[in-house]
Amino acid sequence: MAGKLNLDKLDFQIIQEMMEDAEISYADLGKKLFVSGGTIHVRIKKLQELGVVKGTKLSVDLKLLGYDVIAFIGIYLEKSSLYDTVAKELKKIPEIVRVNYTTGNYSMFIEVVCKDIQQLRFVLHDELQKIKGIERTETLICLEESFNRNVLVKS
């Protein structure tokens, strides 16, 4: 796929550097990669237009903000053809931060972030149970996240 996008070594270096520090200025990144800040600006714009760069996100310690429960929920669908419909409904639930269509035991695997067990109960009992097409769910509560990182991109 990267070959079809016509990305070069500099593009991959820019992507890697910005995944590590999205706040770096184009001028500082240019110095680090031995090109001008203008070149960085043009390359980032190109990567955005190609859909490779989809914006920047602020990395937040959710526990410090009072979100103490992270759960992963395996969803069994009545029929796999219901995936798109169910995904659309799941997107409406703000506590759900990630939805994946998977192989294996579950049709879908989602990540949910809640302030407490009562909020998780509400999501499971009051929100997920209303969605047509979900046969049943299996919930795994996260006790600790050892690390979370981006993939190392290479040309």
Write up this protein:
Helices cover 36% and strands 19% of the residues. The chain is built from 6 helices and 4 strands, in the order H-H-H-H-E-H-E-E-H-E. The protein has a 4-stranded antiparallel beta sheet. Helix 3 (26-33) crosses helix 4 (37-49). The mean pLDDT is 93.
Write a concise synopsis of the structure shown.
36% of the residues lie in helices and 19% in strands. It is of the alpha+beta class and 155 residues long.
Layout of strands and helices, then pairs:
Layout (H helix, E strand, L loop, with lengths): L1 H4 L3 H12 L5 H8 L3 H13 L19 E9 L5 H8 L5 E6 L6 E7 L2 H11 L6 E8 L14
Antiparallel strand pairs: 1-3, 1-4, 2-3
Helix pairs in contact: 3-4
CATH architecture of the largest domain: 2-Layer Sandwich
User: How many alpha or pi helices?
Assistant: 6
- For the report, how would you describe the main beta sheet? 4 strands, antiparallel
Q: Stretches where pLDDT falls below 50 for ≥5 residues?
A: none
Number of strands: 4
How does the helix and strand content classify structurally?
A: alpha+beta
Number of domain modules:
2
What is the CATH class of the largest domain?
Alpha Beta
Q: Would you tell me which CATH topology of the largest domain applies?
A: Alpha-Beta Plaits
Using the CA coordinates, give the radius of gyration.
20 Å
How much helix, percentage-wise, in residues?
A: 25-40%
Principal-axes geometry comes out as elongated
Quick one: CATH superfamily of the largest domain?
Lrp/AsnC effector binding domain/regulation of amino acid metabolism (RAM) domain
Order of helices and strands: HHHHEHEEHE
